[in-house]
Backbone:
């Protein structure tokens, strides 16, 4: 999996990293049970501060996507279904994005097509 950091982006680097790791898991590039690189090694590979990678890993842990195992590293968790807390978090994140689309004139069918397109992009490799 290739991580592309855009230092000039308005999106903080730790969020860029977090989002790309999530996308890599969704696409099947990273599998449940696999360990992510150590914070130090990943930071060196990406040319970013260790605290940036650490913050990303903790964000992923907070979302329930990885588990940080002391002295072993960060492992991608297995999921068979979404729990209510994660469902509600996703609902709250998606709601303003969908509202923005509606305000900008996207029709319900176009929105559904857009979501299906994104899902298909994620699932094409897995």
Residues:
């Amino acid at each position: 999996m290739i991580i592309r950091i855009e230092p000039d982006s308005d999106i903080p680097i730790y969020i860029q990293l977090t989002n790309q790791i999530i996308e890599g898991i969704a696409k099947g590039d990273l599998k449940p049970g696999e360990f992510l690189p150590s914070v130090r090694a990943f930071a060196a590979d990406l040319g970013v501060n260790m605290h940036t990678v650490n913050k990303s890993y903790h964000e992923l842990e907070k979302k329930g996507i990885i588990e940080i195992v002391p002295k072993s590293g960060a492992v991608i968790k297995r999921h068979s279904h979404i729990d209510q807390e994660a469902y509600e978090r996703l609902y709250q994140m998606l709601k303003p994005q969908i509202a923005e689309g509606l305000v900008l004139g996207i029709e319900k069918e176009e929105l559904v097509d857009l979501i299906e397109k994104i899902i298909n992009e994620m699932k094409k490799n897995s």
Notes: The chain has two domains: 13-76, 84-123. The chain has a mean pLDDT of 94. The helical segments are 13-27, 39-46, 50-62, 84-103, 108-123.
